[in-house]
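In the design runs reported in the main text, the only information available to the sequence generator was the tokenized backbone. The following block is the verbatim input for one such run; it is reproduced so that readers can re-run the procedure and compare outputs position by position.
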């Protein structure tokens, strides 16, 4: 009985090694930083509201066998194109947010369809291909905002245009739609502020994703993810299913970026989208997801741990060596290194799982 209990504990730890490691890092960091629990809860709540939908957008491609879709950056670009349009038209408040959300849909569908077509030509190398597509799309995005707007497409707006009249400024104020969604229903206590409507919408999207994966379409997406050859033999249009998965992911990413930016209130025209894919992928991996399996629960847990560590690390750096910049360097390491570390730990986890099976 005792041996079986130890085996179960060992199996549980090895199965969830990634979230276990990062939970320990957060606990140690919080102890060193001597951070107020209320401050940490307040800060991480804001970050959860900002980022959860972006992380959710990775789930459907993983289930469909496309791996971790770094291409969600294209969805973020679609959202930012819509936000520039709404700001130019001076549509404010929840109306402006709604118009941006609706306008981002056809743009993100187009981007998702094009991405899906490319990924169908790169089966087996989807993750690196989606990353390269993000870099390529970023070049076109910058061409649009630096030259086309005002240069080819007439546009006059001194607030958001460069002094030359060609191109968009590096920073665009989203004052008109700042907190447009968050402030509709919000409760607060001391420093803790919870945007209720934002969380309700995020929860609804979580339910929609869960429901979708239980429908006939969802079962076909799962079948494609498990084995494309068997799926094709069963009469499923594999390429079509993969394109649908990418489109859904891109649309969700666009809406996620809108929620993110309305909370911040500032659009870094040429930079706000660049880290979207990296941070979302890191978050879901920390939650215990892999390139072949991802759930809503893993997305929530990973986003919580990833951003909690981001909050704690500068504070811990200040306490340890009197220099918060140490924490900033650690945050950069977390952002760029966590994907490699997580994938390495997952490889080790698979080896341990096989070893456990042999022991049993």
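Verbatim output:
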């Amino acid at each position: 009985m005792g041996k079986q209990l130890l085996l179960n504990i060992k199996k549980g730890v090895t199965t969830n090694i990634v979230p276990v490691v990062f939970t320990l890092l957060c606990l140690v960091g919080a102890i060193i930083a001597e951070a107020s629990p209320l401050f940490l809860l307040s800060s991480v709540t804001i970050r959860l509201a900002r980022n959860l939908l972006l992380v959710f957008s990775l789930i459907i491609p993983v289930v469909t066998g496309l791996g971790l879709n770094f291409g969600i950056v294209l969805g973020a670009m679609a959202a930012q194109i819509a936000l520039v349009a709404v700001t130019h038209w001076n549509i404010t408040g929840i109306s402006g947010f709604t118009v941006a959300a609706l306008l981002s849909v056809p743009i993100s569908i187009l981007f998702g369809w094009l991405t899906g077509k490319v990924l169908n030509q790169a089966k087996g190398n989807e993750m690196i291909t989606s990353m390269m597509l993000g870099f390529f799309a970023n070049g076109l995005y910058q061409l649009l905002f630096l030259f086309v707007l005002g240069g080819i497409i007439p546009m006059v707006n001194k607030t958001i245009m460069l002094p030359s009249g060609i191109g968009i400024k590096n920073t665009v104020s989203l004052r008109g739609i700042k907190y447009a969604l968050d402030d509709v229903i919000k409760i607060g206590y001391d420093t803790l502020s919870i945007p209720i409507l934002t969380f309700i919408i995020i929860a609804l999207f979580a339910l929609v994703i869960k429901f979708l994966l239980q429908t006939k379409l969802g079962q076909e997406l799962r079948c494609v993810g498990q084995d494309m050859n068997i799926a094709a033999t069963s009469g499923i249009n594999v390429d079509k299913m993969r394109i649908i998965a990418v489109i859904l992911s891109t649309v969700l990413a666009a809406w996620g970026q809108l929620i993110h930016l309305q909370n911040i209130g500032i659009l870094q025209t040429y930079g706000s989208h660049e880290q979207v894919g990296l941070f979302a992928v890191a978050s879901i991996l920390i939650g215990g997801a892999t390139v072949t399996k991802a759930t809503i629960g893993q997305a929530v847990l990973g986003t919580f741990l990833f951003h909690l560590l981001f909050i704690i690390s500068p504070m811990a750096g200040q306490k340890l060596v009197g220099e918060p910049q140490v924490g900033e360097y650690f945050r950069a390491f977390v952002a760029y290194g966590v994907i490699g570390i997580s994938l390495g730990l997952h490889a080790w986890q698979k080896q341990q799982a096989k070893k456990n099976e042999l022991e049993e």
